[in-house]
Amino acid sequence: MTDTDPGVPEAPADVDLGRVWISVAAQVWRRQPGWLERTAGRLLRSPGLARALLTTPSLLLPWLLTSIAVLAAGAAATTDSGQPLVALVAPAVAAAAIAYAYGPGMDPAWELSCSMAISDRMVLLVRALAVFAVNAVLGLAASAVSASGAAAAVTFGWLIPMTAVCAFALAVATVARSANAGAAAGVAAWLITVLSGRVASGHFAAAVTDTFLFLPYLAIGAVCAAIALYATRIPRGTLR
Amino acid sequence: MDDDDLVARIASGDDAALRELFGRHASWLAVRLRAVLPAADVEDVLQETFLAAWRGAGGYRPQDACGGWLWGIARRQAALLLRRRKPAEQAGTALPADLADRDVPDPAETALARADLEVAIAALGPDGSPEREVWRLMYEQDRPVAEVAELLGVPPGTVKSRAHRVRRLLRAALRDGTAAEGGAR
Amino acid sequence: MNVEITDLTRRFGRNQAVDGVSLQAGPGVFGLLGPNGAGKTTLLRMMATVIPPTTGHLRLLGRDPGAYGPRREVRRRLGYLPQNLGYYPGFTVAEFVEYFALLKEMPAARVPAAVATAVERVDLGGRAKAKLRTLSGGMLRRVGIAQAIVNEPELLLLDEPTAGLDPEQRVNFRALLRDLGQRATVVVSTHLVEDVGAACSQVALMDQGKIVFDATPDELTARGTEQGTGDAPLERGYTAVLAAARS
Predict the structure, then answer these.
(1) Closest chain A CA to residue C100
(2) How many domains does chain B have?
(3) Nearest CA to CA, how far is A147 from chain C (Å)?
(4) Domains of chain C: total
(5) Are residues B19 and C126, on separate chains, in Cβ contact within 8 Å?
(6) Could you read off the pLDDT of A51-89 as tens digits, one per residue?
């Protein structure tokens, strides 16, 4: 900034042009957060956490649009066939989304994030909750659109298995330190659950309609959440 | 890349062009402002000037000299700054309401006009050159043409044509707001 | 003293990466030299509070980073550049630096000016709004340095900061280090011995998890006068000390 070409006179000695440029650049280069980020910042009482939240891969537009498309297809299929397909699909979608809220594998600056004042664990917690909430809302919307008659139990019932599957996906992701592993595990676990439900009671929807499964789901969810919490307590050092 | 291209790029959002423009012009603007304002104010005015240039680059027409355009912005910003400050100091001078704002020239404007004039006079040529001498004798010392002609040892017709040239040069310099060193490349 | 380390160890399974390290550092530039695998990166990671030590005492900026509250306070005043820093391709230079400024809990009002200062200090002012995917390796390294210094840290930890920088940029970087070292403790881990000699007031040499030398660069040079191989005086000191430590 102080390079001068011979034709340009020198600034007065007591005027700090460097400082002037910095104050200009500060305004020109600054990023103006959108209303969503500002609101999130106020709610979370932390602009940094809000920014980290809104840069979650699974909360970005492409991901959300894909989720909506998948759930919409499920809703259409449900209306057609009477099978609660939304209820079966939503947990898998949510599980994948939750896994991709996790750092390693998705966050290239992972090690740096581990040295931040806003801890990576806090970021993960807020992201996971937000992703879960968003997917629950999308799923509910798809269910409501395709609900028919006595499907109320199914419309909301799948939220519980979804919690379990999400917690499982997150636990695997944090233990294996890989978002991909978590997503794969979550989707696979859900498929297995649905298929075993089919084998056990003859219909696909058993996984979401059999209320006696709810307690085991919640228990699994709690255990997996505890595992995820423990796995993120101390980031592993074997990063060679 | 010349200044006009830079401003065109600034208008399309190129911040690196603004940085380049700053590098080229901030120095001489600072020098000119410093003649009128204290250092801290010069920094504030320069900051506002370049931010205004960033926002208003779309309104620049290539036939304006870039230096003149920037100086115009700087002038306005300096006047704004001085006007914001001065009211507190003028409170004690109990001017009758009908005189204030009309007959009494604004100190800010006066200071800036003086700075402009000094630069424009410098554009007439070095000290001692024919135009500078005519300016000094005819306009600063208010002598009649005949006396100036005698002092300079030239015919009155020559004095009149030089005076004409002086007025033309001054008008151009004041309009463009540029001095030799700050002009567009 | 900004860094007080006593008998620090760190083990990964059977591998003793850091084996009883003690050192102290106040304001100034502190060089950490050593061959690959010596444990420099692990030591730096512990100082950056990325991983906890297995045993030993660590005090950073007068606080014990073992507890959540003090650790957070340390992290707000810390700058860290890891050896391998990934980047977000779609972010611009200014956005990347701003992101980490926010994560370091800098007051939001101060962030724009701090980002501008950091970006200009690493000489990337002409590319502040360029996307990271368009930058070369050396420029990305400078972006990494910018995010590390954005919060004007009291403790700055740089792991191989000059990787990818050309000689002129390295000269600028050393000037930046000296400037930062006036108020802060800067720890630079590098395998480029010349980097150290020019900027550091104190040098430690690590080998196989232990510190084998801890004094000034001149003293390191002095160790190389008898034996030691290498083209430059510091290099000779370096090899002499290593040879002595391994014999």
Answers:
(1) A116
(2) 2
(3) 40
(4) 2
(5) yes
(6) 988 888 777 777 788 878 877 777 777 776 666 677 777
Of A29, A110, A234, the CB nearest to C116: A29
A54 burial level (CB within 10 Å; 0-12, 13-18, 19+) = middle
Please tell me whether residue C173 adopts helix, strand or coil conformation: helix
**Final residue of a structural domain among C152, C181, C200:** C152
Q: Are residues C229 and C146 in the same domain?
A: no
- Across the interface, of A31, A112, A238, the residue whose CB is closest to C85 is A112
Q: Which residues pair with A67 in a beta bridge?
A: none
ipTM of the complex model: 0.88
How far apart (Å, rounded) are the C-alpha atoms in residues C24 and B124?
Answer: 67
Rounded-to-integer distance, Cα B30 and Cα B23, Å: 12
Residue B81 and residue B163 in one domain:
no
Burial class, C69, CB count within 10 angstroms (exposed 0-12 / middle 13-18 / buried 19+): exposed
pLDDT (tens digit per residue) in A86-124:
777 788 888 888 877 776 556 788 889 889 999 888 888
Subunits next to C (3 or more Cβ pairs <8 Å) are A, B
C61 DSSP assignment: T
Write the DSSP symbol of residue A135.
H
**B-C Cβ pairs (cutoff 8 Å, strict):** 8
| A11 to B47: CB separation less than 8 angstroms, yes or no | no
Chain C residue whose CA is closest to B18: C126
Q: Does A230 touch chain B (CB under 8 A)?
A: no
How close A154 gets to chain B, by Cα (Å)?
53
Q: How far apart, in whole angstroms, are the C-alpha atoms of residue C210 and residue C202? A: 17
Residues C66 and C158 in one domain: yes
C129 interaction partners in chain B (CB closer than 8 Å): 15-16
C26 touching B (Cβ < 8 Å): no
Contacts 24+ apart (CB under 8 A), A189-195: A189/A95, A189/A165, A190/A91, A190/A92, A190/A95, A190/A161, A190/A165, A191/A92, A193/A161, A193/A165, A194/A88
Same-domain pairing of B151 and B63: no
Question: DSSP readout, A205-236?
Answer: THHHH-GGGHHHHHHHHHHHHHHHHHHTTS--
Smallest Cβ–Cβ distance between B43 and the set A16, A25, A29 belongs to A16
Residue A216, CB-side half-sphere exposure with 13 Å CA sphere: 7
Helices (H), chain C: 40-47, 68-76, 93-103, 111-121, 137-149, 167-180, 193-199, 217-223, 233-246
- The stretch B164-171 carries a mean pLDDT of 84
Tokens representing A125 are 């917690």
Pair (C207, C171) in one structural domain: yes
Task: At A10, list the tokens.
Answer: 């020198």
Closest CA to A237 of C16, C36, C159, C60: C16
Q: Hey, is C144 helix, strand or coil?
A: helix
Minimal Cα–Cα distance from A156 to chain B, Å? 50
Residues C14, C65 within the same domain: yes
User: pTM for this one?
Assistant: 0.80
Nearest CA-CA distance, residue B16 and chain C, Å: 5
Residue-wise pLDDT for C184-213, tens only, equals 999 999 887 777 777 888 999 999 999 998
Residue B110 lies in a domain: no
Domain membership of residue C99 as a residue range: 84-152
CATH number at residue C15: 3.40.50.300
